[in-house]
Amino acid sequence: MSHQLNVHANRRAVLRGVALGLGAIGLGTLGVPGTAAAAPLRGKTAVVVGSGFGGAVAALRLGQAGISTTVLERGRRWPIDPAGTTFSTINQPDGRSAWFSDRPNINQLTRMIPIQRYPGIVDRVHGNGIDALYGAGVGGGSLAFGAFTPQPRRRDFEQVFPSAIDYSELDRVYYPRAKSMLGTSPLPDDLLAHPFYKGARAWLDDIRDFGGEAVRHDFCVDWDVVRDELSGLKPASYSIGEGPYGSNSGAKNSVDHNYLPAAEATGNVTVSAMHEVTEIREIPGQEKFEIAVKVIDESGAAVSHKTLVADYVFMAAGSFYTSALLATAKAKGTLTRLNEHVGKGFGNNGDFLMARTALRRDYGSAQGGPGVAVMYDDENPDGPISISWEASPFPAIAGGITSANLIQVMSDERGSIDYNPATGRAELNYPHTEASSDVDARAKRFAGRFHERADVRHGSPVSGIPVHTRLADFGSGCTWHGLGGMVMGRACDHDGKVDGYSNLFVVDGALLPGSSALVNPALTITAIAERCLDRFVANQT
Length: 541
Description:
Elements: H1 11-23, H2 38-41, E1 45-49, H3 53-64, E2 68-72, E3 122-126, E4 131-135, H4 141-144, H5 154-160, H6 167-182, H7 189-192, H8 198-210, E5 214-216, H9 223-230, H10 259-265, E6 269-272, E7 275-282, E8 289-296, E9 302-310, E10 312-315, H11 319-332, E11 344-347, E12 351-357, E13 373-377, E14 385-390, E15 403-409, E16 415-420, E17 425-429, H12 438-452, E18 465-467, E19 478-479, E20 483-485, E21 504-506, H13 522-540
Parallel strand pairs: 1-2, 1-10, 2-6, 4-19, 10-21
Antiparallel strand pairs: 3-4, 5-13, 7-8, 8-9, 11-16, 12-15, 12-18, 13-14, 14-15, 16-17
Helix pairs in contact: 1-10, 3-10, 3-13, 6-13
């Protein structure tokens, strides 16, 4: 599984991304920074640590501002092979599925399958009390996320985020910009009607029987490519429930298809794959940083070491790794001005994963996806709550009687990322067990209510058996949506600037306050990163 296996890039997606990024320069009504900012910033250098949603935004906007920028990504590039062999599949995982692991990192049905160690795209951080999953590769979390890009409701957002983050501004400027760059849109009606999408239709019917309202939201998917899948012109991927290990058809609009190629097209940005940051140091007497980097090969071995010097550093390595690098720097004294909030406020976004089985409706086995709608229950006795359905390629033994659902609640439960001097590394600590967790308790009550409640208009309950024990990797013991650790208004200001430094920024999920308000955080991370970069460029000119 060398780089040679995947040498054919998705040219259409790359060109589309470049056009979007360069076209954004002219979108003056959205306040996008353009070439006007370049002159004052030429000669400046920046390092972006990580290449997911936040890092890709930083790369593009820094490049447009004329700053010589290096993006450091520990994972490899994943160009789309037209033959459909770029990524492994959920039910037949191999080394491509996991970041240097002997076992796959997701799907309890395959977790015991031995695989070769390889720089695969899903990394699992094994914490004390919770595990967290992150994408690895050029594109970061956008490679592995479920492609759900809903915008949170104002009422939920304002309950979670500080008032300094103006929802109206995000709604007017930054959410639309993020949606345009990522190419998001709802599941089209013609696909919803397709036989492969019976699961999506069944989910809408289950919401109706509960008495709720289905909110059709955006997905980070090129639906024309999914149509090509269904017509046999592209390898089947989203049309059969694949996605968490990447989309072999190229249908996922991950940031390596839009933001990153647009950043590289500025001529000011270099994306360096297989470059793992090991340390960040301030240079005494200078407003600059040294960034220590280990260059690795596909076995994980170090092939060289580098030290980069930069005027600015933008942290975007994912909530755990961003926080871990900074918590380690604080403990070792390489960044002496970090405050006491570094590493604090880690939350799981109120996520509670469950399977529903013995269903009354036929969801299908290889379910067309990635999803269709979220349902909010504002009358829930424990407070507002949401539930979504995600398509999955269930084994034939499950028939069409099983579905995967994500419940999300508002919760103040938080953990931390702390440097452990005994091990010499940072660790994730989350003191909330299945028995004591408020998230688990509230989500379990809602799961029971969802299955038991009968809607008088239909006279029949939503049937099925909820499965949500942490022992089976369900519940809230493992999250795709870890947030916080460098929380805005605490470790950082509301524009992402790290307290104590004028030239160190956090622009990824670590900046969010442990929650993205009852929805997947991808779109909000992107929008807030855009906001941070607008303010950064404005403040430098």
